Amino acid sequence: MAFLNTKNIKCEEKLKCVTVLGAGLLVGTALVVIIPEGIRSLYVGFGQSQKRTSVPEQPDYSQTIGLSLVLGFVFMMLVDISQRKTNFGSNKKNNATLTLGLVVHAAADGVALGAAATTSHQDVEIIVFLAIMLHKAPAAFGLVTFLLHEKVDRHQIRRHLVLFSLSAPLMTILTYFGIGQEQKDTLNSVNATGIAMLFSAGTFLYVATVHVLPELTQGGLTKSDQHDYCLLEESRGVATNDLNGSNSIQALKYSELVILICGALLPLIITFGHNHQ
User: Fold this and answer.
1) 242: in domain
2) Which of 72, 111, 185, 266 is the most exposed place for a label (fewest CB within 10 A)?
3) Does the model's pTM come out above 0.70?
């Protein structure tokens, strides 16, 4: 029995490390891939319109960038709050928020790709396509590892993954075939591709920083670990009245923190050779 318990503990520790890596990938993908490509799409769209109109002024998209990110973040926050109120009093963990956030993010990616395809600018299409493909694998990895960490049934995890996988191509097809020429010109004029990518980045950031990371830090310390931590801090003369609150970040070990940082930097390494010229 002791051998089995030790084996289970090691398996849980390995799963926790993989989950932390997935969380780092989610954060890094949003910051390193999606936001830069969304901003680039805005200015590439301006460059294409400038060739047609010969307007010399360089636009300032700072408010557009900030507003798109905030709207995506706030949208997922409202969805999360509404789901928490619906599940209030239930012992079932609210795992749907992560899946819904990534599905909304993938759907926004689909809209961005469909909008890019309607602009007839091949360079924009290639950039958006590469950006989406580069972060789909880390996002899927982060989704599956987190659901495994939450001990969700494997059949249900497959359903979540299928839903996440289908949302982007379906929205791409609907966007491409569902708009007419006037709408295409409108999307091109307002740089809808970049706005959609930045909106999806806002949803991505909420899912990664507000939902995934707190779940990892709050669930990382067992009762015995908390007791040992209290004794250690008391021996150092540190107050331990609010262990579960102010010291919740200590739930991540230093090794797990290194894994989290490596996961956040991994998208940068993957996209290092991606040509932006």
Assistant:
1) no
2) 185
3) no
